[in-house]
Specification:
Layout: E1 6-7, E2 11-12, E3 22-28, H1 36-46, E4 52-54, E5 66-70, H2 74-84, E6 99-105, H3 106-109
Amino acid sequence: MTMEAGTEEFGLHPNSAQWLSSTKMMIRNVPARCTETELRSFLESLTSTEYVLEMPKTSQTKCKGYAFVEMCDPLSLAALAEALWQQRLPTRASERALKIHPAKFVAEMLPPAPASKLYFDL
């Protein structure tokens, strides 16, 4: 397996060039009882760059097991991916490491190209 490849256990390796074209990351294997405050505190220990955290919940308190982190630029996201690689939440006894994957690519954020003319002026 190359360093670029993802693994089933940890997600996409931080050395992958795909991180440099993404501004949003999906974090999987988030423990169900993990709170948003808990995850935010962990992320803030890894980065000083501003980010937006989305953490879907099944109810008022239970996490669905994943979260999204969005940053303004791909370099900051790539640095966070490197810091998160093979990590577990230190406040939880979970044996499973967090899985990370790019979730939004820069090309998705660009406006669509204008349609070309399909007719001719006579």
